Amino acid sequence: MRNLTKILGIGLLAVSLTACGDKDKKGTKNPDGTTNNGGPGGKTSDPTKASAEAKEDFAKAVAVYKSAKSDGKVSGGECEKAANAFTKVYKTHGKQMAVAQFNAGAVWHECGDTEKAEKIYREVMANSPKYDLPYNNLGVLYWKKGQDSKALDMFRKGVNANKRQARAARNNVAGLARNVFRDNQSAEAFKEAESSIQTVLALDSNNQKAYENLARLYYDRGILKDKSYLVLANLVVNQGIRVLKEQKLESAALYNINGLLILEQDDQVNALKSFKEAVRVNPQHAEANLNIAFISIRFRDYAQAEKSLEIALKNPQYKKNVEAHIALGVAQRGLKKLKDAEKSYNKAAKLDGKDPRPYYNLGVLYQEHLAVTDDIDEAGQKKAWNTAKKHYNKFISMSGSNKDMAEKVLLAKDSIANIDESFDIMAEMKRLEAEAAKMAKLQEEQDRKERERLLKLEQQAMDAANQPAAPPADAPKDDAKKDGAK
């Protein structure tokens, strides 16, 4: 979880976001980095103790920023206007308004001009080396670029710059250290992450991000190494939810982790309820949407799965998530959006050329769905089955001896055998149909000849019946008398 400290105002007026886009609908009233410390020569500079004139000018600059953001975002010419307003305050009042210089960088950061933001952050670090927030935000820039070691170094510098108040930097140290632990189960990384979070909670027992980080750290350890830490994760989740509730706040991240913990008890129904609580708090929470989608697919609620996956895949952290794209294909296949499903599987295949799973799903799509559509003819069916075989064979080849794919490899081989059997059956059916047609033709010829014979006989009978009757015969002569007369 990357904590990027955004525009700061006197009187602890603050807004915070996470650089990965995981931002709760109801944020903490006292977010990371809200204390504006730092200043020249290692001394603390508190803008709340600045001159009345400086405070007034700073408040005007904050008003300019708020006006620019009234439509929900700062963009175009608004970026320069808001940044210049803060820069003017710093130039007018000097280092007592280091926060104004920092805010100018934060404006450009929010507007996406990271080059200008980095330049200003470095200027603040040079002018006010004990001010922790520019270290934090510069670390976030590196983290987003995938430069984790540089990011961690910058977060640590932020902590060292202001050990008592660098909460955002401490939480980000914990986040990166947790990633290291998750990847290689490093005991040292776990210890650093846990210590950083506990320090934040010691300084601020209501710190939302600290509860979220600690719960996730314990959950990861429980899943990867020691199941007993799942109990600790559950305790942190419940305590965090209770503490935030007392402040009339909620955390999507904690509801999401709670759902993961419930899943460990194989209770998908209540886990789904918890994930839905997470997206109620933050409809864009990527991981919660993914979890909703995966459970929805098991429940054959493909419409919900598709909706949740499309939300999750908008998040930069998950845009290249192969499993999410495969799941989207499964949901679309269930909704009979077969061409969309094919696109999703192909996208997954392009994202990771070494992952065989998209090809298995393409095989299923062609064999069990595209080959049996209502409007397909025999030639089309054969083509679809051959395409399915091609995908299955590629899946088998890519899976190799991967034990995780062993069961699917057997299923793919069975599917190929079934397709070949279908081809054999189809060929046999054609042979039988040809034989039947031949027999039918022979029978038809025999029937024709028989009809002709019968018709001929019938005609002969009719002809005989229509012949005229023979005349009466003459009386026979008496030959004997004739002879006597002579």
What would your notes on this structure say?
By secondary structure, the protein is mostly helical. The protein has helices spanning 52-68, 77-93, 98-111, 114-127, 133-144, 148-161, 167-184, 187-203, 208-224, 228-246, 252-263, 268-281, 286-298, 302-312, 322-334, 338-351, 357-368, 378-399, 406-465, 479-485; strands at 3-9, 13-18. A two-stranded antiparallel sheet has the order 1-2. A hairpin with a 3-residue loop joins strand 1 (3-9) and strand 2 (13-18). Helix 3 packs antiparallel against helix 4, helix 13 (286-298) packs across helix 15 (322-334) and helix 15 (322-334) runs parallel beside helix 17. The N and C termini lie far apart (154 Å).
In short:
By secondary structure, the chain is mainly alpha-helical. The protein is built from 20 helices and 2 strands. It is 69% helix and 3% strand.
Biggest sheet statistics = 2 strands, antiparallel
Q: Can you count the helices?
A: 20
- Write down the Rg: 41 Å
Helices and strands, in order, run as EEHHHHHHHHHHHHHHHHHHHH
Question: Which band does the percent of strand residues land in?
Answer: under 5%
Main features:
single chain; 486 residues; mainly alpha; two-stranded antiparallel sheet; 20 helices; 3% strand; elongated
Question: Helices, strands, pairings?
Answer:
Blueprint: E1 3-9, E2 13-18, H1 52-68, H2 77-93, H3 98-111, H4 114-127, H5 133-144, H6 148-161, H7 167-184, H8 187-203, H9 208-224, H10 228-246, H11 252-263, H12 268-281, H13 286-298, H14 302-312, H15 322-334, H16 338-351, H17 357-368, H18 378-399, H19 406-465, H20 479-485
Helix pairs in contact: 1-2, 2-3, 3-4, 4-5, 5-6, 6-7, 7-8, 7-9, 8-9, 9-10, 9-11, 10-11, 11-12, 12-13, 13-14, 13-15, 14-15, 15-16, 15-17, 16-17, 17-18, 17-19, 18-19
